[in-house]
Amino acid sequence: MNKLADLIEQELEAFAQAESKDQGKTITFARTVDIPRAVYNFRFFASSILHHTSECTQMDQMGCMHYTMRVPGGIAGLISPWNLPLYLLTWKIAPAIACGNSVIAKPSEMTSVTAWMMCKLLDKAEIPPGVVNIVFGTGPKAGEAIVSHPDVPLISFTGSTLTGQLIMERSAPHCKKLSLELGGKNPAIIFEDADLDQCIPTTVRSSFANQGEICLCTSRIFVQRGIYHEFLKRFVEETKKWKVGSPSDPTANMGALISKEHLEKVKKYVKKAEAEGARILCGEGIESLQLPTRNQNGYFMLPTVITEVKDESCCMQQEIFGPVTCVVVFDTEEEVIKRANGIKYGLAATIWSSNVGCVHRVAKRLQSGLVWTNCWLIRDLNLPFGGMKFSGIGREGAKDSYEFFTEVKTITIKH
Ligand code: NAD
Questions:
Q1: In this structure, is residue 193 part of a structural domain?
Q2: CB within 6 Å of ligand 1 — which residues?
């Protein structure tokens, strides 16, 4: 695994170029986030697997001791989405093979180039033949074949909630073990005592990084009344500074969306919000996009900020998965917790406040698998990652992935 990490790292630039061309993300994002993280996934799990311990208990009155032993789960089916292609595929392959499984992995049909490039390195890295099998194909064909195959007892899936639900149905007759990392509609809660100098640029990034095509992106921003106008003015000013440009332009903050259909879907949400009486403060329909000639027909869109939108509106309830964020006002802690939780998803939330008591109280009550306070997207891979409610089932991370990709046995010895 360390050898494979080294080989990908040696070709980092070629992988980053391919990821950017295939997905539309900026070359800078691919170079600094996607590919380095794919490399790190292999290094991290190669070492973390060495440090797990098992449990042991003594039952002297029965003359027994018990201990746990873990064995590989078998063949793991791994299915990943298009937004962070190699990053998310390797986040599954690395722990699965570290635990001794073989895998059948399927990247998204929209972005499979870097997975194919990695295939060519498997032999060189001396990964034994048959351990990492990558199949290319669409969800309904290749994906369903993996999910409904009786000899694949584990399925780790990252993608939309709708597909996750379908996978649960298809797996049920086989009682498969499932790990599902699904959609999100993530709130940022900004209290009056927040450090706006840090909060505003980070919230622009959390809303629009990778064109807003990250499951952890912020899409509902709740701002306390006392700072609402100042926040909104500065947030829009900062958003307007974000450069949408050719994915190969190293100074661009945002590239192109994944497809024409997705771009149309995202734009439709902005239209719907307008029709419901919301105000569009910048972006789609307000400013025009300046692009180099060769990018004129690409699927680009400006980062868009919507306000005066109701909590029940589809823009506040449904996952848009694009560069669109809504900003609304709140008064009290109690109120904002209720409104932030008033949604079917529960993946990630962000709290901005300098009051540590408030941060703890709100973090505890938010229905969210991850809560960042005064920051965003800082991850320790040792700790659990995953969502509540419609955002998923199970967690991934050092210990959680180890537990998912192995079966535990309890062994009792009488002496
Ligand atoms: P998607 O559900 O359409 O596809 C994801 C993968 O599932 C693809 O490889 C696809 O081919 C496959 N697939 C589709 N139908 C299938 C079926 N019937 N059986 C088996 N496999 C099938 O999702 P997407 O559009 O590629 O990705 C975007 C979604 O992924 C968003 O909802 C986003 O929030 C979510 N996501 C979640 C996380 C997380 O960690 N929670 C991370 C990234 C993306």
A1: yes
A2: 79-83, 88, 106, 108-109, 138-140, 143-144, 147, 158-160, 163, 166-167, 181-184, 215, 319, 321, 347, 387, 392
Residue 390: strand, helix, or coil: coil
**Which atom of ligand 1 is the closest one to the Cα of 396?**
40
- Domain of 176? 1-182+391-414
ipTM for the complex? 0.97
Domain check: are 198 and 177 in the same one? Answer: no
Task: For residue 35, give the nearest of 62, 53, 14 by alpha carbon.
Answer: 14
Q: What is the mean pLDDT of residues 122-131?
A: 97
Q: pLDDT of 264-293, one tens digit each?
A: 999 999 999 999 999 999 999 898 898 999
Is the domain of 281 the same as that of 218?
yes
Measured by CA distance, the residue closest to atom 26 of ligand 1 is 81
Distance in Å, CA 160 to ligand 1 centroid: 4
- What's the CATH code of the domain at 330? 3.40.309.10
Q: Are 202 and 375 in contact (CB under 8 A)?
A: yes
Residue 3: pLDDT band by 50, 70, 90 thresholds? very high
Task: Report phi then psi at 163, rounded to 5.
Answer: -65, -40
Catalogue the active-site residues: 181
The residue whose CA is least distant from atom 36 of ligand 1 is 159
Residue whose Cα lies nearest atom 15 of ligand 1: it is 139
Q: Number of folded domains in the chain?
A: 2
The structure tokens listed for 366 are: 């938010």
